[in-house]
Amino acid sequence: MGCSGCRVRFNFAKALSKVSVFFTMVLIFTYLFYCLTGLCDSAPRASYSQPPVDYDILDGHRRILDDLREPARLLPGGAPPQRNRTGSADAAQVDAPKGGVQSGGIPVSNTFGTKRFPQAIIIGVKKGGTRALLEFLRIHPDVRAVGAEPHFFDRFYDKGLEWYRNLMPRTLDGQITMEKTPSYFVTKEAPSRVCTMNCQTKLIVVVRDPVTRAISDYTQTLSKNPALPSFQSLALKNSSTGLIDTSWSAVRIGLYAKHLENWLQYFPLSHFLFVSGERLVSDPAGEMGRVQDFLGLKRVVSDKHFYFNETKGFPCLKKPEGSSRPRCLGKSKGRPHPQIPSEILQRLRDFYKPFNHRFYQMTGLDFGWD
What we know:
By secondary structure, the protein is of the alpha/beta class. It has helices spanning 2-36, 39-42, 55-68, 91-94, 130-137, 161-167, 190-197, 210-224, 231-235, 249-252, 256-263, 277-282, 284-294, 342-363, and strands at residues 108-110, 113-115, 120-124, 143-145, 170-171, 176-180, 202-207, 272-276, 306-309, 314-317.
């Protein structure tokens, strides 16, 4: 009797197991049939709507991600690797545009956003504070920027506008695409090329006392080439005459008025914002307020984001919540400058003075370099 009961329970359990497998298979085949007939695509999906932005939360999250992210590396041909919103360097290759290229160079969209031409470009100047400005701007949740300098309008223009647009990060509606390449400001062909892309592009120029800028430029080059001749031997055509050598790029870049004249042939002054490199150090929040206003952004980047690093001598970004350290610019920033003879510095100041005054008149701003 006991054995008979065991057999009944065993057979019942075996039957129940078969029934479970049967219903599981039915569900699987039903799902496969449902998807293969295309009904999956017709299933209702939640439409995307952007909730109100909590800037503090986004700010913290973005800065944590920036801490973890490796610096952009240029690929062969000069193109930096692109990241989509997931942070994958290969995503731009995998997430191929679904809609194809439209006529007139209209941006191509996909589910991760749109690759647009930059609406704003930091065009100069070298050693003026452009990297600091870009890093400060990237705190803003409505700014997406290329990390590496594309150099499209001075070095890689022959690659074409579609190549350039593919370098850009994907953006959502309401976000601004940006890039920075400081050499654009001193490149003769750059203004016409940028205008060919879009004559409504907003242009940001970070300027700095041209004498200090030239010394900083020399210091950077010297760190890469310790055998470089002295600053004074490069700055002067002839030590006896004391004439300044404007063919040396470190000197020539500081002729801001001359370079601006070239740009004003293609863009009105209203399309420019001139940022003081000195005030970007002494009052970063104040200068960032001007930049955000110029770009039509809400003033998100403020005093709460900065602290002054006494060792480096310029502001750093406070560490976001959850991060172990604050964010400062790299070791290449804040290098000590070599000692330059005072008479050489005075000759340079005298040389730049008329160009500075002309620049003040053109921009309507007195930067106080004299």
